């Protein structure tokens, strides 16, 4: 899902051997991804630029999987809105490309858009922010009149009735400038220009547009205090990539809190990708439409892909339909996972299924086993750096690798059928210590933002994981390293003289 240039950047990171530095007690691959997990510490400017670019590219999924991506691009680039964006940019000094990109990710250019949380209009402005921009949001009280005939007390046996009138108040919007693009767009442009001046950078202004001024004030201060960040490089990418659970803990926790709330720390990267996508739409609408088609799910009927794995895996990948298919393929497209928990950092807890005719399904593609091996490695070295008191690293429990399609369809999880591709695996995190689970989730997210893998929650305590098609060669190489290390250890063990008994 990367362009040729982006793919080249990805493999520039991943295929350069980085040496054998690491713990001698567990597997350390020679081929590693730079700047991941514990290696975020003191990240270089060159590596930060590559990671930022990959992060921007990763936002393609969140934008292009939406059904409104194509009609939204058409709306944003219409003559009427383009004239409005250019005029607002001219009078505010805020770049027109960024202004229209924000309108694109906020509302797809729809002036009538309303968020369930309150923001409205083409620029999705909250009522409080609208008033600070000088926009008018006027509410008026109206009354709903109803009449009811009720029985009243009267003398004699014959009942008496009386009509009672009720006036129920309700509030309506008498005027809302947020819903008028001719007012909302110029106001948003002026506001963004003000934020850029206040916070000293366009990236922080974009971040503040989504997160709020108070949020960015706090995040800026935490970034300034963080270790490993040069004083002249206080940027949103530096903020995002300069923390992990082991150090800059305060900044890390603040970012995690905002990610759980509304993913605002990724908003700047999303807007930057929207700029690129709108430029592509202007330059080559057919290529834009083709890209949109790539981000539809080939395995589910819903038009909106639920996660990256739904985009990467196709129906043609579901090739292992029976236990016989799996047994016949071993050594071709499937390989055995190595069962050495303490050394490789994962434990095979794949349950037996005698009904299927196969005792255990311990196979997967080389890329899948390599992905598992690499995740375990990065999680363990981050865990070693974190060094949580009273905890010991537990090998990651692997509960599923390849499965025949007929068995997978009997399982409750809707993602289970994808195991018949051999490209995914499941990890049960319910038994992991809290510190290790934190490290695992961080590593998965970090590799995901770099475009290497996708993962999704399956059930209450299970993670469904698979690598991207673009990174399969890299992870297959990691698997070959692991096999080579295992064979080397076995040969060394055989050559070691045994003491006389």
Task: List key phrases describing it.
501 residues, alpha+beta, two-stranded antiparallel sheet, 21 helices, 9 strands, 48% helix, 12% strand, globular, disordered N terminus, disordered C terminus
Question: How would you describe the overall organization of this protein?
Answer:
The protein is α+β, with helices and mostly antiparallel strands and 501 residues long. It has a domain at 308-485. It has helices spanning 4-14, 45-58, 60-64, 69-76, 79-92, 96-107, 127-133, 181-199, 202-211, 213-225, 236-241, 249-262, 267-283, 285-294, 308-312, 323-329, 341-344, 366-386, 405-408, 434-449, 472-495; strands at residues 137-152, 160-176, 335-336, 346-348, 363-364, 396-400, 424-428, 453-458, 462-467. The strands form 3 sheets. It has a 5-stranded mixed β-sheet with strand order 4-6-7-9-8. Strands 1-2 form a two-stranded antiparallel ribbon. A hairpin with a 7-residue loop joins strand 1 (137-152) and strand 2. Helix 2 crosses helix 13 and helix 6 crosses helix 13 (267-283). The longest helix is centred in the last third of the chain and has 24 residues, at 472-495. It starts with a helix and ends in a 6-residue tail after the last helix. Residues 1-21, 354-359 and 496-501 have low confidence and may be disordered.
């Amino acid at each position: 899902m990367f362009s040729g240039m982006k793919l080249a950047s990805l493999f520039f990171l991943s295929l350069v051997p980085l040496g054998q530095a690491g713990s001698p007690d567990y597997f350390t691959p020679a081929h590693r991804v730079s700047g991941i997990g514990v290696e975020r510490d003191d990240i270089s400017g060159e590596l930060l630029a590559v990671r930022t670019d990959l992060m921007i590219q990763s936002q393609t999924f969140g934008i292009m999987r939406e059904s409104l991506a194509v009609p939204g691009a058409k709306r944003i680039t219409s003559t009427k809105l383009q004239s409005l964006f250019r005029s607002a940019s001219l009078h505010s000094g805020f770049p027109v490309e960024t202004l229209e990109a924000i309108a694109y990710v906020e509302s797809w250019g729809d002036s009538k858009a309303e968020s369930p949380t309150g923001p409205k209009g083409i620029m999705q402005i909250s009522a409080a922010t609208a008033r600070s921009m000088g926009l008018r949001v006027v509410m008026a009280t109206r009354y709903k009149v109803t009449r009811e005939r009720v029985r009243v007390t009267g003398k004699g046996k014959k009942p008496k009735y009386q009509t009672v009138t009720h006036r129920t108040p309700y509030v309506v919007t008498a005027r809302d400038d947020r819903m008028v693009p001719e007012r909302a767009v110029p106001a948003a442009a002026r506001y963004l220009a003000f934020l850029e001046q206040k916070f000293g950078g366009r990236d922080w202004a974009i971040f503040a547009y989504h997160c709020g001024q108070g949020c960015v004030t706090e995040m800026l201060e935490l970034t300034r205090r963080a270790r490993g960040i040069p004083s002249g490089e206080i940027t949103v990418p530096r903020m995002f990539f300069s923390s992990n659970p082991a150090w800059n803990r305060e900044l890390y926790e603040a970012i995690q809190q905002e990610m759980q709330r509304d993913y605002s720390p990724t908003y700047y990267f999303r807007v930057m990708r929207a700029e690129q996508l709108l430029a592509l739409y202007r330059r080559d609408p057919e290529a834009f439409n083709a890209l949109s088609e790539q981000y539809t799910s080939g395995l589910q009927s819903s038009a909106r892909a639920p996660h990256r794995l739904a985009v990467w895996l196709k129906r043609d990948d579901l090739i292992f339909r029976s236990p016989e298919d799996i047994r016949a393929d071993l050594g071709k497209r499937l390989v055995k996972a190595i069962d050495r928990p303490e050394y490789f950092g994962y434990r095979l807890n794949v349950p037996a299924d005698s009904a299927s005719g196969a005792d255990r399904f311990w196979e997967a593609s080389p890329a899948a086993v390599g992905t598992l091996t690499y995740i375990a490695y990065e999680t363990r070295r981050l865990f070693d750096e974190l060094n949580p008191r009273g905890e010991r690293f537990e090998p990651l429990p692997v509960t599923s690798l390849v499965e025949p399609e007929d068995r997978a369809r009997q399982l409750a999880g809707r993602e289970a059928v994808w195991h018949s591709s051999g490209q995914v695996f499941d990890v049960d995190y319910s038994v992991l210590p809290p510190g290790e689970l934190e490290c695992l989730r961080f590593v998965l997210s970090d590799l995901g933002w770099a475009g290497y893998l996708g993962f999704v929650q399956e059930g209450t305590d299970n993670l469904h994981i698979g690598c991207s098609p673009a990174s399969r060669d890299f992870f297959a190489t990691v698997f070959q390293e692991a096999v080579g290390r295992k064979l080397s250890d076995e040969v060394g063990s055989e050559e070691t003289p045994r003491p006389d008994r």
